[in-house]
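Please check this.
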Amino acid sequence: MAEEAGEAAPAEEEDLAHEEAMELWQAGLARLVRDPLLCDLPAQVTPEEIASQVALEYGQAMTVRVRRADAPQEPMPVVVVQQATVLDLKKAVRRFVQLRQERQGGVRHLSWRHVWRTYSLAFGSEKLDDDRKTLREYGIRNRDEVSFVKRLRK
């Protein structure tokens, strides 16, 4: 019986250590978010968002504002690296929307396959059809606005 109790104790200590580690991690993130460099980030920030914000401040990344054609709200500020391709931008839009949905409790699942079959991204009057082309090749720079446009059926 004493052995059984002895075996259970380390598991409880491990759980407690994990909980303590998570609390320390969250406290550290909260301190980071109070930094003027990272103050625009949400309270439940991910390490990916911190890395993106730091890269943005050092000029290694850029913000592309993505506007939905059917929504009058503010465009989505999506951060991508300077040499990002159209595919990288699409992945960043997907991640941005997923994080926003998790935080706001919106739709749980969104078919991105359907989204990209129905809409394409456009910069000015030019559609961003080639996923391998860089955003720079399309002339997209920091703080430029890209919008969703409905694809025409062939």
Observations:
- The first helix runs from residue 2 to 33.
- The mean pLDDT is 83.
